[in-house]
Amino acid sequence: MIFRTITIGEMLKDAASWKHFQTLYEVNFDRLLDIEKDIPVLLFVDSTGLDNAAVEDWLFAFNNIVLMNGIPVRAFLLRAYSSEAEVTEGYYKVVSGPGSPRQIFSTILRKINEQTNRIAGVSDSMLVLKRLIVLSMFYDGSVMIVGETGTGKNHFAEVIASLSPRGPGIFYSINCAAIPDNLLESELFGYKKGSFTGATSDKKGLVEMADNGTLFLDEIGDMPLNLQAKILGITENREFFKIGATTATNVDVRFITATNKYDDSSLRDDLRYRLSSIVFSLPPLRHRKSDIPVMFDYFMSSKGYLVRFENLPHEVKDELIVYDYPGNIRELANIIEEYLAMNRISRTKVKRSYEDIVATLADRAMIEFSSNTKTYKEFLSNIQKTVSRELLRRRMDDIGNNATQLSVEFGLTPRRMRDLLSEISNPEPESP
Q: Considering only CA atoms, which of 88, 109, 112 is closest in space to residue 163?
């Protein structure tokens, strides 16, 4: 579950003051405390019929109470039949529209579900990212996406933009590493007629074209420093100069940026701070292999094929899970395309990593056995312990020291799992 929604309507229409509302809050919101701690709450309040004092009390309450049981709460006040502009205030959102509060609420939820379903993944790390998208969906500032090449940063940016206040607006994308430096400035900022040889007319750049919308700058670290300074100027003053222009052009554009690493030294520090109010860190595919079956089915379904991961031959499923995917999602997509075309997966492409590791370990075992360092039994025992420790560490990063859940996943008793968790803090055994 990405989030949970709670709607409060008729019972609050009599709440004329915060003092009176506080009593209702204590009585009617006890169930919030029973909600799982890792599931954020979206609270929708129908303000139809509430007087201004009651509405102001709601806004005051959720501008200060932004955590419920350790989880951020977003309160949305639904105002129906109003032409009033939408207003964002801190951690709540006042939503106005021509429909009824119920219709507005349904529209918001439908849009959330449609967009988050575009992100194929059910692993803990992907659920965390989906929740962050929902919790920040009415934030209109700059966002930075960090992830290795091929992790789906462009696709992720589209979902973030769609669920933002600028969702109905234009969305443009440009890869800063794919365009030569001497052309990138004109593509981004445009130019005036006669500013250089060949400039026979004025040209709008993507920054101006994305006015009142969103511009996604992929691989922002590859942008030249002088152009980074111009982007910084837009974030501060909302204006820029076209090539050859003597007057500034005003724009209202939201930047979503992406980079291979957050601490990229080629990115100006002042610009990084401006662009990374919210950071989405996309995990590499090798760290969320439980999503591979889901992604396989997603790709197949999007192409109209009926083949599903569970129906694949066992050897094909093993090959897809074992591989480390240095090219991440992009490489998985290429492997799936090859499977569709050739009905096979190249052994050299998928098996080399796993087979190389196995061959290396076998060679190591034979060397240590012949030198009387370890028996084969001792060697295999150390391998099992080392792999078990690594698996435990990775799962602990996701769910913490939850011995009950870990014991189910590893097929051990909770008592034995607690013993293993305590051993994690001890020095590692000698590696084989």
A: 112
Dihedral pair phi/psi, residue 321, rounded to 5°: -80, -35
- The token pair that represents 344 in the structure block: 């096979």
The torsion of the CA quartet 56, 57, 60, 65, rounded to 10 degrees, works out to: -150
C-alpha 102/C-alpha 110 separation (Å) is 12
Contact 96, 79 (CB under 8 A): yes
Q: Which residues pair with 41 in a beta bridge?
A: 4, 73
Question: Distance (Å, rounded) from C-alpha 189 to C-alpha 98?
Answer: 37
Tokens (6 digits) for 364: 């190591």
Q: DSSP string covering 224-285, please?
A: -HHHHHHHHHHHHHSEE--BT-SS-EE---EEEEEES-TT-TTS-HHHHHHH-SEEEEPPPG
Calculate the CA dihedral of residues 117, 309, 319, 417 and round it to 10 degrees. 70
Give pLDDT tens digits for 92-137: 566 777 777 788 888 888 999 999 999 998 888 899 899 889 888 8
Write the burial class of residue 233 (CB in 10 Å: 0-12 exposed, 13-18 middle, 19+ buried): middle
Measuring CA to CA, how many Å separate 391 from each of 158, 380, 386, 397, 401?
Answer: 33, 16, 9, 10, 13
Q: Please state whether beta strands 87-89 and 143-146 pair in parallel, antiparallel, or not at all (unpaired).
A: unpaired
pTM, 2 dp = 0.73
* Separation of CA 143 from chain center: 11
